[in-house]
Amino acid sequence: MKRIIIASQNKHKIQEIEAITKKFGMLLVSRDEAGVPEIEVTEDGKTFEENSYKKAYEIMKLSGEITIADDSGLSVDALCGAPGVHSARFAGEHAQDHENNEKLLFLLSAVPEEKRTAKFISVITMLYPDGSKIVARGECPGHILFEGRGSGGFGYDPLFVPEGFGKSFGELSAEEKNQISHRARALAELERQLLCRSRD
Ligand code: IMP
Fold first, then answer.
1. Is 88 in the pocket of ligand 1 (CB under 6 A)?
2. pLDDT tens digits, residue range 142-152?
């Protein structure tokens, strides 16, 4: 069985990605399970594509095996795409979710409802030892509320209402979010590209 190393240690992401790779007869193993030492990857790319590639490349260099990595964040139109690749550390290097959310609300305080459009973005890179790669991007459009609603999820979830829904990501159940999220869409795109590759 072909092994794939996943750069993330996030159990939730591992389960989601495993559901797809299993269909293609691939065994997903975490960096820890593969015996690859923990390394600090500086996420200094200007795009989600650059950062997810960087994470996959650093692990692939050490493991010599197919590696998968993802990068995600929130892009707000009125802020020209910010927080973007800086989503995790918007309010500072070790910022907590509530500090990032407060900064976002502050910056958008004078922005009217119709201009509070935003999208979550997820990019998954699957890198092969021969240098070839699959890059799968998923987006979930929506808008930013004036105050948080709901306590589910993580990060900016309480502030984000996906298009066509009356509830924030923080109010939706995990199952509902997982059907429409940026990560779900990137995973669907990964599955599509894996299928094309398996037919080559
Ligand atoms: P990473 O891809 O795990 O590094 O996530 C980057 C940051 O983007 C997170 O720390 C969150 O602030 C934000 N983010 C990414 N995906 C989500 C999501 O599904 N909900 C809320 N925030 C998210």
1. yes
2. 999 999 999 99
Task: Take residue 61 and report the two structure tokens written for it.
Answer: 């260099």
Cβ neighbour number for residue 77 with a 10 Å cutoff: 16
Instruction: Determine whether the shortest distance from the Cβ of 48 to ligand 1 is under 6 A.
Output: no
Q: What's the pLDDT tens digit per position in 166-184?
A: 999 999 998 899 889 999 9
- Atom 23 (ligand 1) nearest CA: 155
Q: Give the structural domain span for 87.
A: 2-199
Cut 0.85: pTM above it: yes
Pairwise CA distance, residues 74 & 153, whole Å = 14
Give me the CATH number covering residue 43.
Answer: 3.90.950.10
Euclidean distance between CA atoms 25 and 8, whole angstroms: 20
